[in-house]
Every structure is written in structure tokens, then in C-alpha cells.
Specification:
Number of strands: 27
Radius of gyration: 32 Å
InterPro entries: Beta-lactam/transpept-like, Glycosyltr_51/Transpeptidase, PASTA_dom, PCN-bd_Tpept
Protein name: PASTA domain-containing protein
Largest sheet: 5 strands, antiparallel
GO molecular function, one term: penicillin binding
Pfam families: PASTA, Transpeptidase
CATH superfamily of the largest domain: DD-peptidase/beta-lactamase superfamily
Number of domains: 3
Keywords: Glycosyltransferase, Transferase
Strand order of the largest sheet: 3-2-15-14-13
Shape: elongated
Strand content: 15-25%
Distance between the termini: 103 Å
CATH topology of the largest domain: Beta-lactamase
């Protein structure tokens, strides 16, 4: 029902059938057309059955919805269009039975009436695509922690001052069990928000959303918030939280088409539900077919596919349910929005891409009289329904169409680059940060430490200078308070008294003697065999320096 309605709307918006809406309506109704659609009845049946088994048409306390769209990779042919509510556009039916709907949850508003749904972490794949496109590797290391991020660390060349803004914002991870420095591969597999924020801090926000646009990703309906710069358009919201949280409402068919590009050498095709139209005499009738363009390069697509297949195949990944029952390689990413209002699985083989959404079709009245969307957690497995529907559709596709290995990703996208930590001792804080960032390190400021380096300059780093670590590793730098003094050199081998005199001259007034192996000290004659703290190290003048003497030896 919804697919047939989609086909009709598609034709009625096609200028091939008339210059005006009235003319197109007339030609559609009276043209005597035979319309051959792209729908795969086997996949459609599998999707319908899985949806019926996991998401009812009606549930108390939630306006429940589910939608799944499948497209053929590199053609845009729509193979599946499934949702939990059967189609009806008869007013009496819609008024009497909430189990029916005329709204198509799979499509944009102008092709079915839905405003789309927030896509959650499935948008992370777009940020990953820009990461690889800008020369980074999935094995680079990033800080994945929840934290407060200054807006001016988010570069945005298309915005005033070249940054997203000023001030800061706090974000958290759903998965707080994995912290610190992790590879991008791990951040994607475990869907850790902090990793994506760190990635975006090394890129241009405008470039990330330009990549999304080239992949055909857009809002399902015009933005209705008058306070936003995208008001009245289907453009995405260019905000930092979108790079990991997918806050825009997008149609499932749009997400399926974008992921088809990751599985198909970067080629993104506009969805098309029609293979052929013939007239009364059997003649072919022209219609608007799919338009295919390069969303990302084949190399970038292969890098994204590598990471998203890891998310499916590796035990740490959250998309293990997307493994094929037939051994066909799959890539996939899950997504969950705030308060678990929406749940997604989007993925593909080299032949078919599918997006499945389960969540709130709309708000319901709450106990306090307000209306809002609710969490799917309290509705008997609803939050996991996508993990059953998506595999049912894709396993049917695998049995019918098969699928090849994804193209090999370039080394630049998968290798781990080892970098030596530079010596930033004695540098100003800003100089040290600049040096480290240019080499790809994440930089954080540690405590002020006792050091003989002039106050305010960098005393040390962790890892230290010369350490070989993966690109992107976090380096903590420590400023000096300038309060320490170097312990003099040349103390070992001199007599105890001579060493003490040298220490006193350097500002160390507290000097103690100890024997190397028992006995009595005689600093006038005995020679120094060890110094603590060691010569060359920094110590406060108030610290005690211990000189170990060779007692009993001259």
C-alpha cells in the first residue's frame, strides 16, 4: 500500500507527465499506463513478516512506528518499503482504527507525508567518511572521553571567525566503560561519542556537512524552527552534536541510499521505484529515473566499509546482529537517539542497502497533560526490534543477490602511523600545543610542576620527548613554576665536604651524608659515590640532598 502510494506520488511529481500538477494528475489517471515497479516481492514479504512479528501496528502509551527501506547499490532501485501500519487513505478507516496510516514513514514529506526521524549514531559514518577523506586513518588514536569542549576548537571555515562559535558545550557517552585514548576503529565499533568529537576537532565542520550533502543526506521535511538558519529548508543542522548524534529528522530511504554509497565505490543514486512504464500501445513512456553521482571517492568508501564491516564482524562492535546468515560481507551501523526514542540499523552488502527504523511515529499525551515522544525501553523488546527486522530483509537479499567482498581499503585509511613525541621543554604553552597538534597529537594540560625551567614554560610531557606512539595519542604537557634548581653535576668522585660546598653554593642548604655499606661517615676524606636527587635533576632548594659516601675507602 505505502509503496504503491509512493509510486503514484513519484509519477505525479515527474515533469515528464505534465507541466502542472493538474495535468500530471489527469495523465496518470487517464493515460492507460502499465507501470512496472522495482519492488522485490521476496524481500518485501520477509520485511512484512519480521515487522509484524516485532512491531505491532498499535501499542498503548506510544505512537509506535517502524519502517524499512532497501535500495539496490549503484542503481537506486527501491527493493523494499515496509512499515508497521498498513496503508489506508480512507478518512473513515483512519478515524476509527489507529492501526492504519496514510503516512509513509520511509520517504520524505513530499512523497508520503512523514517528517522523518532523528538518525542517531548512524550519522557517525558520515563523520568517518570526512575523516578518511581528509587523510586520517581508522587506526589513528583519539580521546574518547565525555568532556566539555570549547566551541572555538571546532573549525568551521564557512562560519564567522572560522570557528563554530565561542563558549563551550558538554557531552556524554552512552558507553562510559571505554575511556582514554582509543583508535577510531574502536570508537566507531563501540559508537563512542567522544571519539567522534575528537575527530571533528581535527577537521572542518563545513566539510563534514558538505560530505553529507554529496551523499544525498537531507531532512525529510523543511526545518520548522524559525530560530535556526536552516529554517524553511531541508538542509542539515550544522552543529557539533550532529556529527555523532544525528539530530536531524531523515527518511529511512535517504539513509539506505547514503550507505549504498559506502558499499558501492562511493556512488550515491537517488531512489527510483519504477523500472518501466508503457502506454496503451505498448510504447515506452519516459519518466525520471535515478541520478547517480560520486558521493565520496572509491577509496574513501572502501575505508568506511572497512570500519563498518569491523563493527559487524568484531565482537566489540554493536552491529553483530547484522552478520549475514549466508556469509555475505555486510557493513552496518546502529543508532539510538536521546531517551531511546528511535532505534536504527543501517547497512549494506555490495548489492543491497537497507535502513530499518523503530520508534515514535509521533508524540502521545503524557500523565502531566503534555505531548511528547517516549522512550521505547518500556515496551517489551521494542528497542531491539530493528535487530530482527533488518537481518530478515538482508538475509533474503543475500540469498537472492549474493554479495562480494568490499574493495580493499587504501593503506592510508587503515595503517597506524607511529610518531615521535617532540621535545617541547622550554617552549611556551602555545608553542608546545602548536608543535604537538601539527604532528597529530591530542594535547591536554597537566598540573604545574616544580622545575628549574623558567616559570610558565613547559617543563615536561607525558609521554616524554622521543617516545614513539600512534598518531593521535594524547600528550599531557606540564608547565614549570620556576621554583626548582638543578642539582649540580660533578659531585660523584669529590669529597663529601667539597660536594656539600657545591650544593650550598647552588642554594641547597640541607645536605645529609650516608655510608655506602654501613660504618661512620668522614666527609672530609671519603668520596661521594651517589647523589639523591641525582645530579642534573630538579629539586626545590628546601629539599634535602643525600650524599652517599664510600665509607672506609679513600
Amino acid at each position: 500500500g505505502h509503496f504503491c502510494d509512493y509510486v503514484q506520488r513519484y509519477i505525479k511529481q515527474d515533469p515528464n507527465f505534465g507541466e502542472t500538477a493538474a495535468e500530471r494528475e489527469f495523465n496518470f489517471s487517464r493515460g492507460g499506463y502499465q507501470i512496472y515497479t522495482t519492488i522485490d516481492l521476496d524481500m518485501q514479504a520477509a520485511g512484512n513478516e519480521a515487522t509484524r512479528n516485532n512491531v505491532p501496528a498499535v501499542m498503548d502509551g506510544i505512537d509506535v512506528g517502524s519502517a524499512s527501506s532497501s535500495v539496490q547499490v549503484k542503481t537506486g532501485r527501491v527493493l523494499t518499503m515496509v512499515q508497521n501500519k498498513p496503508f489506508s487513505n480512507i478518512p473513515e478507516v483512519l478515524e476509527s482504527d489507529p492501526g492504519y496510516s496514510a503516512i509513509n514513514y520511509n520517504t520524505d514529506y513530499d512523497l508520503g507525508g512523514s517528517g522523518g526521524f532523528q538518525v542517531g549514531s548512524t550519522f557517525k559514518a558520515v563523520t568517518l567518511a570526512e575523516w578518511i577523506k581528509s587523510g586520517h586513518s581508522v587506526r589513528d588514536v583519539v580521546n574518547v572521553n565525555s568532556r566539555t569542549v570549547p566551541f572555538d576548537t571546532i573549525r568551521a571555515s564557512c562560519m564567522p571567525d572560522g570557528v563554530y562559535g565561542f563558549g563551550s558545550w558538554d557531552f556524554t557517552n552512552d558507553n562510559e566503560g571505554t575511556r582514554g585514548n582509543q583508535t577510531v576503529l574502536t570508537a566507531m565499533a563501540k559508537s563512542i561519542n567522544g571519539g567522534l568529537v575528537s575527530m571533528q576537532q581535527k577537521m572542518d565542520l563545513c566539510d563534514t556537512f558538505d560530505t553529507a550533502k554529496k551523499l544525498g543526506i537531507h531532512r525529510a521535511a523543511n526545518q520548522t524552527n524559525e530560530e535556526l538558519p536552516t529554517y524553511g529548508t531541508q538542509e542539515l543542522s550544522m552543529v557539533p552534536s550532529n556529527v555523532y548524534g544525528g539530530i536531524d529528522e531523515i527518511a529511512p530511504i535517504t539513509m539506505a541510499s547514503a550507505y549504498a554509497a559506502f558499499a558501492g565505490d562511493g556512488t550515491v543514486c537517488t531512489p527510483v521505484p519504477i523500472d518501466l512504464i508503457t502506454g496503451p500501445g505498448g510504447e515506452e513512456v519516459p519518466f525520471t529515473g535515478s541520478t547517480c553521482t560520486e558521493g565520496v571517492s572509491p577509496e574513501v568508501a572502501a575505508g568506511v566499509a572497512y570500519a563498518l564491516q569491523y563493527t559487524v564482524d568484531n565482537p566489540i562492535g554493536l552491529a553483530g546482529h547484522a552478520r549475514s546468515a549466508y556469509g555475505v560481507p555486510h557493513l552496518a551501523k546502529t543508532g539510538t537517539t536521546d531517551f531511546v526514542r528511535d532505534n536504527w540499523t543501517v547497512g549494506a552488502s555490495t548489492e543491497v542497502a537497507t535502513a530499518t527504523w523503530v520508534g515514535n511515529a509521533g508524540p502521545v499525551q503524557l500523565w502531566d497533560g503534555t505531548r511528547d515522544r517516549v522512550s521505547t525501553q518500556g515496551f517489551g523488546g521494542l528497542m531491539y526490534a530493528d535487530t530482527y527486522i533488518w537481518p530478515a530483509i538482508m538475509n533474503t537479499a543475500d540469498a537472492k543477490y549474493g554479495g562480494a567482498e568490499f574493495p580493499e581499503a587504501p593503506e592510508s585509511a587503515t595503517q597506524q602511523t607511529i610518531v615521535a613525541v617532540p621535545d617541547v621543554t622550554g617552549k611556551s604553552f602555545d608553542e608546545a600545543v602548536s608543535m604537538l597538534i601539527q604532528l597529530g597529537f591530542n594535547v591536554s594540560e597537566g598540573a604545574v610542576v616544580d622545575s628549574s625551567i623558567p616559570s610558565g614554560q613547559i617543563a615536561s610531557s607525558d609521554p616524554g620527548a622521543g617516545a614513539s606512539v600512534p598518531r593521535g595519542t594524547g600528550v599531557t604537557i606540564f608547565r614549570s613554576n620556576g621554583a626548582a634548581t638543578p642539582v649540580p653535576d660533578g659531585l660523584v668522585g669529590s669529597t663529601g665536604n667539597a660536594a656539600k660546598s657545591a650544593l650550598n653554593g647552588a642554594g641547597f642548604d640541607s645536605v645529609e651524608f650516608a655510608c655506602e655499606a654501613g660504618g661512620k661517615t668522614d666527609p672530609k676524606k671519603q668520596r661521594v659515590v651517589a647523589v639523591a636527587p641525582e645530579s642534573g635533576s630538579d629539586a626545590l632548594p628546601s629539599n634535602t640532598v643525600t650524599l652517599t659516601l664510600s665509607c672506609g675507602k679513600r
